[in-house]
Each structure stands twice: as C-alpha cells, then as structure tokens.
Amino acid sequence: MREIAPLLPSFPHSVTRQGVGIFVEWFGSHWFNLLQTTGIVAGLFFTGRSFLLDTRIRRISNLLNITEHHRSIWQQVIDKPNLLRVLSADAKLDIKPVTLEERIFVNLIILHLTAVMAAIRGRVHEQPAGQDEDLREFFSLPIPNKVWNDSKRFREPEVVEYVESLLKVKQRKDRKSLRKPRR
User: Does the pLDDT value for residue 123 go beyond 50?
Assistant: First the structure.
C-alpha cells in the first residue's frame, strides 16, 4: 500500500507537494509579470479613486465660485438702492421706462444663469433646489420680463427655451387662478 499511495492523486501529501512545486516553478518564471500586473491594477484603482475625489472637489469649488458670483451680482442691489425697482411687481414701465442701470443688472443675472446652465449641462454643477420657481418669479416681474423679451434673441437657444418654459408655466398657473371654481 505504501508503494501505491504516492501515485494516488487523492493522497494529501503528494498533492500538496506537487501543487506547491508547480506554484513555485510558475512563480519563479512569472514573478515579474505578476508584479507588473499587480502594479498596473493597483495604479488603475488609485487613479480611479483620485479621479472621483477630484470630481467631488471640483464640484465644491464650482459651487463656491457660482455662489460668489451670485452674491456679487445681488450685492449691487444693496449698494445701489435704486435697483430695488427691478424686484418690484408694481413697476410701471409706461410711466418710468427701464433705466440703463436696471437693464445692465438684469443682463448680468441672465449671463449668470447662462453660465450656471452650462455648468449643469456639463455635469459639473447640480441644479439648486427651487431654481425654477425662483427664476419664474424673477422673470415674471415687469422689469426683468421687459429686459428678457428685449434681449432673448441674443441668448443661447437652450437658455431661451428654458426661461420661456418657466414663463409658460407661470401663465398657466395665472390662468388657472382666474377661473371660477366649479360648484
């Protein structure tokens, strides 16, 4: 039985010695390829991880940058109180037309919106909660609406389509509120 046992594949010691021998022989001739492959896979893993981290950092940086520009535009209302009329729903444009300063202010907001929309389309910025309602209210005011209608032909088609869709929703809401409730 001792003479036959080493020849049997189920005998644990011979299989272990044979397996270890094959592995040592393979490792001896392929260690460099194994090391190289491990290095490449680890490099790809760490590159992917740093790319994700960099993307998060870039989004935060973009958010801070957009917020800074937004703040600097609206700071003008604080510094120049005559721009408060832009935010008035009671502005009578037939009595006092839009001033150059008001027109410039609204155009700065439109340019800011265009930049933010490009960042959202490019997936480097997420659309802020409440943006649609905020812009709908803003562009429904008399002065922003007048400046928008005067200048929209110079804007990117995507921006025009977006703002117009917001204003259509506002008009539908206004129409619904004018209807008499059913009894």
Answer: yes
Q: Is the sign of the CA dihedral 111, 112, 118, 120 positive or negative?
A: negative
d(CA 163, CA 139): 8
Question: Token pair for residue 71?
Answer: 């703040």
Q: Which helix (H) or strand (E) holds 8?
A: none
pTM summary value: 0.67
Name the amino acid, one letter, at 13.
H
Contact by Cβ (8 Å): 72, 137: no
Which residue's structure tokens are 């644990």?
A: 12
**Each residue's pLDDT tens digit, 124-167:** 888 888 889 999 999 999 999 999 999 999 999 999 999 999 99
Q: Cα(77)–Cα(84) distance, rounded to whole angstroms?
A: 6
CA distance 92 to 85: 10
For the beta carbon of residue 76, count every other beta carbon within 10 angstroms.
15
pLDDT tens sequence across 25-73: 887 888 888 888 888 988 888 888 888 888 788 888 888 898 899 999 9
Give 112-116's long-range contacts (Cβ < 8 A, gap of 24+): 112/69, 112/70, 112/73, 113/159, 113/163, 114/155, 114/156, 114/159, 115/66, 115/69, 116/66
